[in-house]
Structures are given as structure tokens and as C-alpha cells.
């Protein structure tokens, strides 16, 4: 089950569970679309992988016991341990490689 982290790890922008701006890597590192495109060049600063849009959890339980009210999003905010400069440098070293070959 995805945590649905509440914020961008770079700029700390709020990313509620229904946000279409949230992007995640395979380890659920969570960044906003702007940071992924403008700072990270689609390179996760934690693992080097690529990003995809984070799925939106259903707001209404259309099946019994399944929906945001039964599996709530995380409220724990996570911030990257890397500076924006470190993130940019790391991304620059990998952005020429396709995510599937990193």
C-alpha cells in the first residue's frame, strides 16, 4: 500500500492524497511535478531512478473497505537530506541515461 506522503521532499509543497502534481519513484520518494522537471530532470536524488505520477486513492469506497477513509494517507512529512545544489548535480550526472538503464 502506498504511503501517499503529504509533501514534496524538495520544496515542501503540500501534496494531498488527490494531488495530480505528486510524482514518485519506485521507493515512494515523493516530489512535486515542478521539482521533478525543473530541478531533478526526472532523476530521483535518493536512488537515481525515474519518476511517474503518484496514483490517486479513491475518495469514495466503491468496494467495501477500500478508499481513503479506510487506508488514509501518511501525515509524516519527509524532506530530502540533500541540498538543491546536490540534487541538481546528481541529476545532471544521470539525466542522459534513460531510467530503465540507470
Structure in words:
This protein is an alpha+beta fold and 102 residues long. The protein has a single domain (1-90), classed as 2-Layer Sandwich (Herpes Virus-1), CATH 3.30.40. The protein is built from 2 helices and 3 strands. The longest helix is centred in the last third of the chain and has 11 residues, at 84-94. The radius of gyration is 14 Å and the shape is elongated. The mean pLDDT is 96. This is DUF1272 domain-containing protein. InterPro entries: DUF1272 (IPR010696), Znf_RING (IPR001841).
Summarize the SSE layout with pairings.
Blueprint: E1 22-24, E2 30-32, H1 33-38, E3 52-53, H2 84-94
Antiparallel strand pairs: 1-2, 1-3
Give the key terms:
Herpes Virus-1, 102 residues, alpha+beta, 3 strands, three-stranded antiparallel beta sheet
Mean pLDDT across all amino acids: 96
Gap from first CA to last CA:
25 Å
Overall CATH class: Alpha Beta
The number of domains is 1
Runs in which pLDDT lies below 50 for 5 or more consecutive residues are: none
What percentage of amino acids are in beta strands?
Answer: 5-15%
CATH 2nd-level architecture = 2-Layer Sandwich
Total E-strand runs: 3
Figure out the total of helices.
2
Protein name: DUF1272 domain-containing protein
Pfam family, one: DUF1272
Short description:
With 102 residues, the protein is of the alpha+beta class. It has two helices and three strands.
